[in-house]
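Appendix B. One record, verbatim.
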Amino acid sequence: MHNKVVYHAMKAFSFFGLPVLRFNFRSVGLSEGVHDEGYGEQEDVQAALNWVEKNFHLPILFAGFSFGSNVGLRACCGDPRVQGLIGLGVPVHAEGRDYTYGFLPECTAPKLFISGLQDQYGPRAVMEAVFQRAPEPKRLVWIAGADHFFQGTTDSPGAKLNLMQEEIRSWLRSEFGLS
């Protein structure tokens, strides 16, 4: 929730005056519960969607980072309340876990995927294969010189979070007409 990537994504949404809910999954931070390998965490996303729907009565846009992008995409794809989805640093293999995206062919909402060209958890060739399985509308953006956390690399030092944030804003403008 307090990760720099999540914070900068939140700022991209709030730039347009959109309400934003950031939350920790079960067992993270002060949250109760036990980590459930992404299964129970989908229930966490559904609970968040229910809360946003009840309190704001607006179409919902989802954005998630790393593990949160995998869990959130799985939970939100096909949910009619969710009008658009953003996956940041979408993982394929990270810290001993393999992430699959077999659900993506059924995900018809607009999708934006943003990854660093040097993302150690989502290599380009594998991420592009995941992207190809998703139906239109979709966009995949590679941030040059960025790793999984949109930080710079030795060849391109300096954080790339501002580039990630601008890609989110650009997509929100083009896909949803926000200004």
